[in-house]
Amino acid sequence: MKKIAVFTGTRAEYGLLYWLMKDIQTDPDLELQILATAMHYSPEHGETWKAIVKDGFEITESIEMLLSSDTSSAVVKSMGVGLIGFADALRRMQPDLLVVLGDRFEALAVTQAALIMQIPIAHLHGGEITEGAYDESIRHAITKMATIHFAAAEPYKKRIIQLGEQPNKVFNVGAVGLDHIQRTQFRSIEELNQIYEFDFSKPYFLITYHPETNLKDEDVTPLFNALKKQSDVNFIFSYPNADNGNTEIVKAMLVLKDEMPDRVLLVKNFGIQNYLSVLKYSLAMVGNSSSGLSEAPALQVPTVNIGDRQKGRLRCESILDVKLDEHEIQHALQIAVDFPKAQLSQVIAPLGYGNTSKKIINLIKTIDFKKKAPFYDL
Description:
- By secondary structure, this protein is of the alpha/beta class.
- It starts with a strand and ends in a 12-residue tail after the last helix.
- The longest helix has 22 residues, at 72-93.
- The protein contains 15 helices and 13 strands.
- Helix 5 links the parallel strand 5 (121-124) and strand 6 (148-151).
- The strands form 2 sheets. It has a 7-stranded parallel sheet, sandwiched between helices. A 6-stranded parallel sheet has the order 10-9-8-11-12-13, sandwiched between helices.
């Protein structure tokens, strides 16, 4: 029986990995291990390790690594703390394969540990470009340390091969998080009203804005000024990631909540079922989350994508790209509200509509991933 360790450090990442973890858990030929860390153990981000346990999973190893500061030096120190913890955890776990998704600094730290300890790595969502975040460089670095690759689209698969990875180790399987579109039961508006004590029957924007980590200083005032000028619309925020610069964003959210207590809802951790349900009923997804480029199009919800954090990723017609400029954001919000329903129904989601988890598991069970393949020259 192969021991498959799944690494997770954020609430959003766990949501994307949920069905893959469930399918590994129920597969008679595989043993699921979970290595949880970072934001999952942060009170500021909702202590989401509890949600993992509540969902019926057993966390194999827990590593607390985040420092309370949000400076770039604190992020680097957190990586150091994590690296020490991951070395001990992986030595105890002895997995046959470590599954890592994406491009965050926590993922870079655990991948470094696994590489040196000769643990094969499966990387999900490699080959993508995000020019507005240092995640871009982290993602490609993880690609070079990984043994097998599960890309979300054909252009991303080609880019992984461009980086020197053997084509027979790179697979286009779609976006694993979109399995929720087919397999998760959505909440009703009435259920959401009860859970959050907020009126979801009124029109609202769902807003997730993360720090643009390639900028030394970022002023989010234009976004909040644009929101304040929206009448008869409510605002539902999810908290930003634990990246350097997140404190100022949270402060702005709290100020808006004080100014509009009946129109603003702040949520540290939705959980994937509630999050997708809230997204499904929203007027638009607003901010710079990758969710606006994957889940939102699949649910036929327009996206107002702000700034360069997602620059370089695949787009479709329902995604409205704007600068962090008050007037541009206002204009895009109006376009999103007026977006023709018939046109939304014709949008083709760039990363598919799910059924990815089963593909990944079939490949894990049949591929020889024990040894890193040599560099592939084009």
